[in-house]
Amino acid sequence: MPRDHPLPQLPFDRDTRLPETLMTTNPRTFAHAATGSPAGPDDPGLRAAAAGVTPGEVKVLRLLAGALTDKEVAGRLAMRETQVSAHALSAARRLGAPDRTTAILRAIHLGMISADALPPARADGRHLTRRQRDVLTLMAAGLTYQQIGNRLGIALATVSGHARSAVWCVGASTRHEGLLLALRSGLVTTADAWPPARQSSPAKGEAA
Asked: pTM for the whole thing?
């Protein structure tokens, strides 16, 4: 990566994450909040919960999957930006996702919206290191940087640096857009929208 192109700080889209009070309202869908073992993509409770996602929420997720802003989505659907945010967070809650981006990946996995809604790929990410891919994969599951650091055994600042590099390599400027482009490029899959059950460990001989 050229040294004369310093990486910008990466927005984490904190306003798109569910409050802790919502993350524990449905014990079946949000079992991971209490047990640390998230429901997987084949969990029957997940599909039952997904059936409760409203058509309006699906429309919002479909447009957000195209990397549109809340303002752009609001304009297309003739609603307020606050309504867009509310629909996205409600859908995320029903899908057991910690944020709207992970909710979109889960919705695509469940066939609720088509992957065709994703933005066109801008870069193939071929220069990503294995550790950057690890971080990107855990970001797809909605884990925070601190949670990713705990799983991979690396410092928070290191996670942040890997995340910025990964997002930059796929041609994005935000975490949300970066994950959508990574999915389009095949760097992550919709199945990555659920955290792995076991903690990852650094590759032998590879620096964190």
From this structure: 0.77
